[in-house]
Amino acid sequence: MSRLADQHPGWHPERLRQRRVKLGLTLTTLADQLRNLDREQARQADFIPPMASPEVIGTHERGTTYPGKDYRAAYCHFFQASEADLGFRRPYPHETPPATSHPQQPPVEVSNDRTQHPRPPSYSGLTGARLVPPLTDRPEGRIMTGADETFDFIVNAERAAARPEVLDLLQQQVRALAIAFPTEATNLVGPLLDAQKVTFRLLDGPTHPDQARDLYFLAAIVSGLLARAGVDLSQISTAHIYARAAYLCADRADHPGLRTWIRVEQARAAYWAGAPGEALRYLSLAEQNAHQVHGSILTEVFANTARAHAALGNAEGTRTAIARAADVRDLTQPDDLDEIGGELTTPLAVQLFVASDALSLLPDEPTAEQAALHAVEAFAEPDAADLSYGSRAGAHINLALARARHGDPDGARDALTPVLTLPAARRNHGIRTLTGRVQTALTDPRYGRSRRALDTAAEIEAYRQVTSPVRLPE
């Protein structure tokens, strides 16, 4: 940082972090707020809201990267502070210390007892984006910020021993990441890389065999989630590297369930890379652990097998695997991965989406629309709010695809409505690929010059051009 500090006199990166922490904001929440700043207000202030990510904000706070013009302007606009207040430069002679200021606070509700209460964070459709930041005087805000601070201490510690309290904290962090991943996904790349760094650092030091097994278990989860993020970000080769590291860790942890989960992740990476035959090879390897696994991950093995068969044009193999996934669902019993939950468990809605995805690949499949509708309905259940936004979007897209193929462009557009509102950061590889299939269907010669079909196809084309700015280290 010394060279950067010389280039930017008066730069104090810790002040930005202090502002964020004071308001109880996580890096992810602050990134969401910056990306969603009012564009008209930003235009009047002569800046463009940046495609902020937790990783980039973290480099600003640590002093490893000096914020660019738009980032500095966005920070100043959000925190209602000057560049000097936020530590980007020295104060000018005419500037006076400002009064304490705060960014826009959420509206206040007045209950019947006349006591004022801040409204809880709200979410919008499939986006899952927080519309208001948590407040420091709310317990969850204090807990979240405290956990971030404590974990950052471990991440930045020069040496860390595998003491029980360190392992406990790391287990809590990894569990929280796994639970949050279905709705946050690539927003968690920074914290996942930090967690991986800690587990690998601890494994490099002296550890008791039982501790090593626990650490390998955690490292496998984190590396597996990074592999999934790599697929979402269209970094398939990088995803395979993380997946191989994850499998090595799962093997050393001697955990059949984790080995199975990671084989599924490898198969998923191969499938989305356009290699369904390679995906089947990984899924065949996953089946080798089937007799030792009784959790919901087994349903993923057969559901993804169905999709790979469908991509190869094997209709019989597709239907057999879908039926087998349904049979396995009836026999599964929750295991330790299901108990963690989040991305480590396979809800019925996700299984139904993958099955509908498989059927959508078969030509003239009469059950494709009904299968997609079942998946959409499963995601609409009250207990499905925290499930994968990517699979939720995929179910809607498959429904749109079936309707487009049946000559119903209006129904296709209606099914796509919640998907087309997703911000760029959530338009992952799978969503862009699936919407591309709908675009192709809507440009079929049967539609001729249908304005509805052409407009929706053009809307999809523009939608698919904008992607997440987040990248995994290559």
Note down, in words, how this protein is organized.
This protein is mainly α and 474 residues long. Among the domains are: 90 residues, Orthogonal Bundle (434 Repressor (Amino-terminal Domain)); 115 residues. Helices cover 62% and strands 1% of the residues. It contains 22 helices and two strands. It has a two-stranded antiparallel ribbon. Strand 1 and strand 2 form a beta hairpin. The protein is flat and about 75 Å long. 46% of the residues are buried. About 11% of the residues have low confidence.
Please name the defining characteristics of this protein.
single chain, 474 residues, mainly alpha, 434 Repressor (Amino-terminal Domain), two-stranded antiparallel ribbon, flat
